[in-house]
Amino acid sequence: ADRLQSLQGYLILDEAFMDPTPEHSVLCYDQELPASLIVLRSLGKFFGLAGLRLGFVYGGESIREHLQRQLGPWAVSHPAAYIGELALRDTNWHCYARTQLKEQSNQLQRLLLQIVPANNLRSTHLFCTLQLTESKADSLYNHCARHGILVRHFPQWAKIRVGLTTKNGMERLQSALQCWET
Q1: Are residues 7 and 85 in the same domain?
Q2: How far is CA 51 from CA 45, 80, 88, 104, in A?
Q3: What percent of the chain has pLDDT above 70?
Q4: How confident is residue 181, by pLDDT bands cut at 50, 70 and 90?
Q5: What is the pTM of this model?
Q6: Do residues 156 and 117 both lie within one domain?
Q7: Count of C-beta atoms within a 10 Å radius of residue 179
Q8: 16 and 84 fall within a common domain
Q9: 128 within 8 A of 161, measured Cβ to Cβ
Q10: 30, 59, 89: which is the final residue of a domain?
């Protein structure tokens, strides 16, 4: 960020997926952050408010002033701002949700480790990503679709992303994986 600042540039960090592990955020540092740093956050992922399209920007005063001029006074609706404020203030729910997400993520990891080795599985508190061969990624994607299970397919990288789901969804996924022919 300091080097970019000397070049009149900015370092933009997308922390949209940071809420389950806030201790990893650059916003947790006690030191003053560089004026050239811009941090993007979203309420959609962690809070389950994707349709709300609400997030915020952390940045120096000049960045905030520039954004204010560009976006104007009505960039966020009052209902969205109100819901966002309630969500951010409910710290008891944050703790509960982090615990639940960790448990669900661990359960999903255990299930997926039945079909891939550990070094082919990457996980976060919100989803797991499988690294497969191209043919296996295509096969798993199509197999899940036939079973009414939506997964994210990255064919250019032969990866499948599986999001966290309900208990019923986990049972459906387990059933589908048991009959998948690798």
Answers
A1: yes
A2: 10, 10, 17, 23
A3: 99
A4: confident
A5: 0.80
A6: yes
A7: 8
A8: yes
A9: yes
A10: 89
Contacts with 180 (C-beta within 8 Å, 6 or more apart), sequence order: 115, 139, 140, 143
Q: Which domain holds residue 147?
A: 103-178
In this structure, is residue 94 part of a structural domain? no
- The winner for highest mean pLDDT among 4-18, 65-79, 168-182 is 168-182
Helix (H, G, I), strand (E, B) or coil at 42: strand
Half-sphere exposure of 5 (CA within 13 A, CB side): 12
pLDDT of residue 7: 80
The structure tokens 């940045």 sit at 59
The string over 129-159, giving b where at least 16 C-beta atoms fall within 10 Å of a residue's C-beta and e elsewhere, is bbbbeeebbebbbebbeeeebebebeeeebb
Same domain, 108 and 85: no
Q: How far is CA 98 from the centre of its chain?
A: 13
Res 1: pLDDT = 66
Distance in angstroms (rounded) separating the CA atoms of residues 96 and 91: 9
Domain CATH number, residue 16? 3.40.640.10
Residue 62 counted as domain residue: yes
